[in-house]
Amino acid sequence: MFAGTRFWMTVLCSWLALGVACGGDDGTVDVGSDADVPGDGDVPTDGDVPTDGDVPTDDGTGPVCGDGVTDDTEDCDDGNDVAGDGCEADCTFTCTEADDTCDPAEHCVDLTHTCEPGCRTDEGCAAPTAYCDIEAHSCVTCLDDGHCDAGFVCIDHACVEGCSATHACPTGLDCCGGGCVDTRTSEEHCGACDVPCTVTAGTPECVAGACTVGGCDPGFGDCDDDVTNGCETATRTDLANCGACGAVCPDRANATTTCAAGVCGYECLGGFADCNGLAADGCEAVPASDVANCGTCGTVCPTPAHGAAGCAAGVCGIGRCDTGWADCNVIAGDGCEVDTMTSVTDCGGCGMACSVVHGTPACTAGACGIAACTPAWADCNTTYADGCETDTAVDVDHCGSCGNVCNLPNAVEGCAAGACTVAACDAGYGDCNGIASDGCEANLSTSNTNCGSCGNVCTGGRTCGAGVCSCPTGTTLCGGTCISVLTDVNNCGACGNRCGFEQTCNSGFCLNAISGPSFQVTGLSTTGCAVVDHMTVTGDDRGGIAVTGTRLFYTGDTATGRFAAGDLSGGASVGVRHDGLVSNLRTGQLYALATATGEVSFGAGSVSVTRLIELNSDTGVATGEQITLGSAITLDTSSTLNGIYAGYDRIGVFNGARFYHIALPSGTVTDLGAFTMPAHQSCESLANWGVLEFFGGNLYIVYVSSPTVISRTLVPGGTTTTLATFTDLSDMCSITVSPARNRWYFHHEYASQFGGSGTGETVGFCNANWTSPSDTFRVISLGTSGCSVVDHQAVTGDDRGGIAVGTTGVFYSGDTATARFSTADLSGATGLGRIYDGLASDLRRGIVYSFGNASGPLVTSGGTMDRLLEVNGTTGLLTGRFIRLSEAITMNTLATGIFSGWGRIVVLANGRAYDIALPSGSVVDLGARALPVYQRCEGVGFFWGTAEYYGGALYVDYVASPTTISRMSLATGTVTTLGSYTNLSDMCSFTFLPLRNRWYFHHEYDSQFGGSATGETIGYCSGTYSNS
Q: For residue 867, is it within any domain?
């Protein structure tokens, strides 16, 4: 038991190579190496467990070979029970690779130290495998080329045919591409490596290293004995070597020589045939045309009727026809069947059909002609070739019949259904009336109703020039109407530039409103003249001039003189010098410009003019009265640019930089802004005197611009025109006008065309013309054509009454809201979210207002109104601007009429009439005026219409009944009929838009203009008006 345990310990120690000396009793420990550690496969199984007899015993004598224990003096020790197992009886290895002592046919395996089969040297091998591959321990035929015979090389230990640079071929052979070749006979390497021997269409042969033709393929021959091109000749087809080299085929007439299968022959050319079978004459026949061999040999063509036989394209036919006959159906069987002298289908020849366009043909003596023309067509040129060439239904030179030429003025003529028409118009003309007889009657360059094109009407005051509708000179097209942007408050200086309240447009500038009576000089004559010398009365000339009802006043260096206005008699000094002399042309009142301390004296430098001293209009002496100016005017009395201009209830003063307007008798001063004085003649006082005009809403000055011209200049715009021309005004620098006497008065030094002397000082007069135009507006008609209506109930609710029209929008008030509609077509209906019960407008400027007061717009219950609130023409909202009325007006329910006019609004309220001037807001109480019979609107019970002013009188227009619109004179109360109608329904409000020549209205239910039995209607029709 114990002995067996020791044996196992010895075995385990050996397996694990732990280096523990388990066999000794001395307890020493041997440290083993990693190689001695057994793996999992070395662990003994139960079958390996030794028995007591297998376990060595320890006899205590030390290391013993064969005890199964490898001591440090032994290579191995496996018990020495088997020889040759790697460990010999003397405890040494059987063999090692380093010292291989195995038989030459074996080799040592170092892992087991045993000799295993497989050579280790050539001695272990024998032929035919006499060489040892020591890596594989295998006997092989060869290891390198040297082990092989000449002509062989060693590949994969076998000798195979081949050669290399170091292992040559046998004598007589060359190494080509790794193989031994006889270049004397090789077809691939003939004469040298990689030189192939090939023969085209034949078999090659390498002889003595030279390539030769060994033989030719069937059908080929080497006829030029040149090996480079081989058997170059195809003897089956070659005409020069047919069947054999040198065998040449002969040529035949009209034939192509052939060689086929090595036999000579010939083929006829196209159009030829060998009909006699003789090779000598080749292809002698032409079957296409030979009447004896037509188409094929031996086919003879027969003779046709009215002609001679022929062969064409190998088909028998007609060679020719007799004169006057023809074969037109190309059928030989019936010969020349057609008489070409009379046949209209083959007239003069086959296929020469007589065809007459729009007519019936004829054939006479072989020539085509015209038998007849179809209706509406004619042979007007008597030429067959174009037949009945003329369509008299459309031909302008033969319209209806030959020779009937259409000739219409200003037109490119046309012809339709045999009647002359206008096909096109000459440039600049149009056939606008659709009447052919007068051609293109409309001159599109100048016609205002057909400008540039038919129906293009020049509206809004435009005229036609060069085919374009244009506004007259000095006006601009704004909103479809020609407007003077120099004077229009809604388009001042440019379209859409609207002046503010209490402003006017003057020379294209928005200025504080200038109002008052108009005055315009229309002529300064050279007749009815008279002159006197004033030197003894006034001294040398100075310049100031003014005229009153009875006197002419002129200021010289020593004094101001007065003369009878009628004949310049009674010249006398007034005792003082009035340098700033001026008068009111309307009243004849005389004034002198003055400062706070006294009258202005020219040449005294800068002064401040603050008042007008009133002078007696007959004596020229100060009356003690004066007009205090609303604001002071700074005047440089030493400047040559100063000007003083007498006007109608106004005076103009230019201080060399700015122009000032003084209203009379109020003294209100309006600064009209910067002004540039054109060229003019100045007086010796350095100023000049002239006339201040006001017409058409504009101010002008009239003055002497040169010795031959009196000019008119727009203030402050500066546009200058000539008012009158003369031959000699001398140094004239001061003029004025007497409206009462229809004269103009002047001063000049020396002589002029009117008289005077070379050394004198002259005042004089001549005849003059003038006018005081008013702002007239008169409705000529309220028409029933060009009408359009829309229902407004959805945006306004039930009708209420108020109506007004601006440039772009017409406004109407219902019970729920006021709404805006386009003036063009009533489109774009938009409720404003508010109600304006007091609507009105300025027809001249196209501005819409609502009467109101500090609390806002007028409401249902009426009340006292002290202002006009401006309504935005686009949005309908209040702009925030207003015109304050000079007098408040009480408007009560059921007792008020509102009438929009030209620069005015008229109100009938509480039994009185009021005229409101626009844009100033000045109210004139016209006195008692009872309301006429009228149709009353719902809501506030007002009624609306238009105000007119013509012939010096005011009128109001209104709906008097369902069939009548009336006109009432505010002066007399007289009522006349303005327009009669069949059905106006309950219409109670209308207005007028001069811009579009329309009147706009409202009514409930249906009327002659449209609407429905349950609807609310707003509409318009065409209308006309006049400003004269």
A: yes
Q: So what's the pLDDT on residue 775? A: 65
The rounded mean pLDDT for the chain is 87
Identify whether residues 484 and 581 lie together within a single domain: no
Both tokens assigned to 250: 């002969």
What average pLDDT does this structure show over 573-583?
A: 96
Is 884 part of any domain?
yes
Please provide residue 70's backbone torsions phi and psi, each rounded to the nearest 5 degrees: -80, 115
Query: Could you tell me which residues come within 8 angstroms of residue 863 by beta carbon, excluding any fewer than 6 positions away?
Result: 853, 890, 891
Residues in the chain: 1028
Spatial separation of the C-alpha atoms in residues 448 and 470, rounded to whole Å: 10
User: Average of pLDDT values for 746-750?
Assistant: 95
Q: How confident is the model at residue 61 (pLDDT cuts 50, 70, 90)?
A: low
Question: Based on the domain organization, do 728 and 613 belong to the same domain?
Answer: yes
Q: What sign does the CA torsion over 186, 192, 194, 197 have? A: negative
Q: Are residues 761 and 837 in the same domain?
A: no
Looking at residue 316, its amino acid is C
Q: How many CB atoms lie within 10 A of CB 218?
A: 8
Write out pLDDT tens, residues 883-915. 998 889 999 877 799 999 988 999 999 899 999
- 850 and 958 share a domain? yes
- Band (26; pLDDT cuts 50, 70, 90): very low
Beta bridge partners, 711, equal 703, 722
Omega cis (within 30) before 919:
yes
Model pLDDT, residue 13:
36
User: Are 547 and 651 in the same domain?
Assistant: yes
Q: Which domain holds residue 1017?
A: 780-1026
C-alpha–C-alpha distance, residues 885 and 865, integer Å: 8
Dist. CA 663–CA 496, nearest whole Å: 29
Residue pair 187/194 in contact (Cβ under 8 Å)? The answer is: no
310 contact partners, CB below 8 Å, separation of at least 6:
289, 291, 301, 316, 317, 318, 319, 320
Distance CA 748, CA 704 (A): 11
Report residue 477 as tokens: 């097209």
Name the 3-class secondary structure at 416. strand
Q: Do 833 and 943 reside in the same domain of the chain?
A: yes
Higher pLDDT, 145 or 342: 342
Q: Give the pLDDT confidence of 642-697 residue by residue, as tens digits.
A: 999 999 989 999 999 999 999 998 899 999 889 999 999 998 878 899 999 987 66
Tokens of 486: 């120099």
Which pLDDT value is given to residue 68?
Answer: 82
Within-domain flag for 634: yes
Of 706, 737, 771, the domain-final residue: 771
Whether residue 212 is contained in a domain is answered as no
* Element (DSSP H or E) covering residue 623: strand 622-636
Token pair for 92? 């040494």
pLDDT-above-90 percentage for the chain: 57
pLDDT at 381 over 60: yes
CB 503 within 8 A of CB 510: yes
Give the chain's domain count. Answer: 6
